[in-house]
Batch of 3 targets.
Target 1
Amino acid sequence: MFILYYIISYLIGNILFGYIVGKVLTGKDIRLQGSKNVGARNAGRLFGKKAFVFTFLGDALKGSVIVVIGKYADFSNAVIIIGMFFVCLGHIKPLLFRFKGGKGISTFIGGMITLDPLFIAVILISFLVFYFLYKGFTIPGFFALFTVCIVLVFIEKNILSSTAAFLTWLMIFLSHRINWRKLIQLKASN
C-alpha cells in the first residue's frame, strides 16, 4: 500500500503547473523562456502576476493532495512526509518532462501547511525575519523551510518524520544550484 502511495505521489509531482499555465494563458512553453524553469517565479516574470499565483497555488496543491490522500488512508505522519518527499521529487525530476522540472518549494509548502496549519505562521514569521536580514526571496525562503523542519522535530518527536522532512528540504536546496558563496559575499558587501 505504501509503495503505491509513493508511486502516486511521484506521478502527481509530474504535473507541472508552470507548463500548464504558460500554455493556457499564452500558448508558450515556459521551459523555453526566461530561466527555463517551470516554477512560479519564472511564470510570474514571463506571464505576469496571475501566472505566478496560479502556478504557485497549483504546485502547492500537489503537496496538499498527497497529505489529504495520506490522511484519508489513515497513514502516519511519517509515511505522509515521505509521500511529500516523493511528490517534490516528481516535481523536481519529472519523468514526463525528461527529469527537468521545478524547484519544489511551493509543493513542500502546500504539503506542510496541509499537514499542520501551524506551519503557515512558522513559514510567514521565519520568512519575514530572514527577509529583513537578507532581502530577496531565495535565502529567506530556504531558511523559512528549514525552520519548518526544525519545528517539526519538536511537534512530531519522530526520527523518520524529521529525517524525511530534512531530506526533502535538502533536495529542494540542492535543486537550486545557487552559488551560495556569491550570495553571501554580495550580502557582506552591502
Target 2
Amino acid sequence: MGKDPDGTVSHRKVVLTCVVVVAAAYGVAGLLFGPTPESAPQAADNSYVTPPVQFPVRIPGCDIVEPPRDGGLSGVVFGVQEGYDNPAYPWFSGRRAMAMTDALRAALPADAEIAFASPRASLVFQPILGDDSRRDEFGSETDARATVLRGDRAGALRVAVRQSARPVPPCVAGALDERRALADGTVVDVQDTWYEMNRVRTLSRTATAYLPDGTVASANATDEAAGRAAAVPLTVDELVTIVTTPGLRVTVPIPPGTPDPPGRCITGLDRSPEIDEARARRMNAVLAAIPLDGLRVDRPLGALLPADWGGLCQVVRTGEPGEDALLSIQITTGQSLPQQDSPDDGTTSRRLADGAVLASRESRYGVSGPASSALTMRRSRTVTVTRPSGTQIEVTSTVAAADEPVSWALLESIAANPGLDVS
C-alpha cells in the first residue's frame, strides 16, 4: 500500500491466485486474506480492489485505532470432511450443527426467505475442515451459506462460528466502521463496504461478535445474486442480531430432541438437469403421503432439495436413535431406459406395466473413517425405477452389515410411485 499526500492509504490491486488442496469428499471454494509480496505481478483482468483507507481516523467505539495492514487475496479450493465428528474440535458435533442451524434460521427477519438450493447452500452449518495442526492454514470454523430472498431482491449470506481463547483484536483502520460494546460483555465489530474483483463491484456488510464464552460469530451479507434484482439482503443491525443470537454460542446446551444431520445427497457422477421448485413441491407432497409401514425416521419424507450434481435428493435416518442407518431418495431426469436383462453385478430387473424398468440390487461393502484405516462393513438395498420420460428414482437403505435394511416392498412402493415422475 502507498500513502497519498492527503493521508489516504491507497489499496493497490492484487492478483487472484488459486491453490488446490487435495482432500476427501467434495470441493468448496473460499477466500483467504493474507500478505501479498511487493513483487506480485499486476493483472488488470484478475484483480481485487477495496476502498481507500483514511489514516489516522477515529472509529466509534475504539479508543485506539491501528494503521491499516497490507493484505492480498488468494483463492483456495479444498475438500471438506463429510462427517461432523472431528476430535480436534470437541465443542462441535452434528447435533450442535443442527441446533445452530435452527437458531440461525429463527434469527432471520420474518420477511426473509432461503432460496431453494442444496443443503450446503441452505444455511446449514457444515463440518469443520482439517485438524488442529492446520488451524492457521484453514481456520477452525463451521459456516452456513445461502441466497436470501426479500421480496423481488436477493443477496448472499454467510455465517461462520468458531471457538477462540484469543482476546478481542485491536481496531484496525479499514477493517471496521464501528465497535459496539454490549451489556453482557460482548463486543461487535461492524462494517459496510465494497470490493471489486475483475472490475465488478460487490457491496458487503459484516458483523463479527466476540462473546464472553469464547464464541466468535461473523455474518457477511453481499449483493451477489442470480435470477433476481441484486441487493444486500440484510441491514447491519440485522446482522448484529444474528451474530448475538444465543443459539450460536459454542457453550449453549444443545436442545433435547435435536436430530443428527441428514446424510449427504449425491445423485451419481453424471450431472442431471435441474428440477425446479414447483415440481419439487409436488413430489414432496407425494412422498409425505406414502405409508412407511411403521418404519421409524428421524424426519418426515417430503423434503427433497437440489443435490450436488443435479436432480433432487433427501436422506433420513431410520431405526432407533443412534443407529447408523440411512434411507436416501434420489430423483434425476434425462436418463435412458436400461436394458431389461440383468447385468453381472447382481442386479435384477423387470418391466412395469407402464413401460418403466425396476431394478433391485443388494450389496455389502466396507468404509473407513477419516481418522482410521479400519473398515466398517455396511449393507445396502437399492431399488431404481427408470421411466420412459427419463425420470429415474433411486431409493436406497443402508445399515450396518449385521442389520436388516428396509424391506424390498417398501423400497419399491416409494420408487415406483407414479407421482414421482417429473414429467
Target 3
Amino acid sequence: MNWISDWALPKIQGLFRRDVPENLWHKCSSCEQMVFHKDLERNLQVCPLCGHHNRIGAAARIDITLDEGWQKIELPKAPADPLRFRDQRKYGDRMREAQAKTGMDDAIMVGHGRIEGRPAVVAAFEFSFQGGSMGAGVGEGLVAAARLAVLQDAPLVVFPASGGARMQEGAISLMQMPRTVIAARMVKEAGLPFIVVLLDPTTGGVTASFAMLGDIQIAEPGALIGFAGARVIEQTVREVLPEGFQRAEYLLQHGILDMVVPRGEMKATLARVISLLREPVVDPIETVPALPAA
C-alpha cells in the first residue's frame, strides 16, 4: 500500500476541492472550441468565435423576438394517438416522453405581444419535441395563430424548425400541409403580413407547405432548408450537388430567400419589415403644397 497516494493525497485534495458545475463550458459543434456558457448566453446561443447558430427552444425564441410582457396562448388539443400507432415503441409513449422533456403539449408554441412596439403574433417550433415534426397538434397551433393574428389585426411571424410531417400520424399529418396553407392564406386575405423565418433545419412537408409562402422569407445563417435530403437528391438526379447546397446562403444567392439575418439582428429586422409592410406609404406628390392661384 502506498500511503502517500492512497491516503495523504486524497486528504490534501479534499481540502482544496470545490464543486464545479459540469456545464460551465460548451463545445461548439462547428469550430469545436470551448465557449464559456455565460458568453454563449449573452450572444443568444451564437458561438462568439465562429458565428455558428446553436438551436434554441420555442419559448426562448419567442422571448428574444417579442418585447417584455408577451403572452402565451393556449392551443387547441389534438388527438394524442389517433392511429394507435406503434413501431419499436408506442407513439403515445413517445408523446408523453416529449411532453415531459419539453413541458409542451406539442412541437409548437404561440405567443402575442409587440416587436419593438409593433403588435405581432409569433409561432415558434420546438425541434427537441420529436424533431419539430408536424402533426395534428402543430396544424391546430398554426391555424390558431392565424386566427389570432386576424383577430388582433397583427402580422404573423412563424419560426419553423422541423424534420417534416409526423409519420406516426399517417395521412392525418399530411393533411396539415393544406391546413397550414389555408392558415397562411387567412392572414394574407386579411391584408396582414405573413413572415417566415426559416431555422435549422426546415425540411420535408413543412418546407412543402406554409414555410415557403411568406410575404418575406428570412433565414438564420447556415440553416439547412430543403424538402428531400441531399443524399436522396444525388441518387435521384445522379449528379454531385454544389457545395453548401440547401444552406441558407446558397438559397439566398439563388433567389429562394429574401434575407439571411444573424440572430442578434433578427428582432430589429422584423420590426423594420413589419413597419414597411404595415405603415402607409405617403405619396410624395400629395405632400407638395399647391401653388397659389394666379
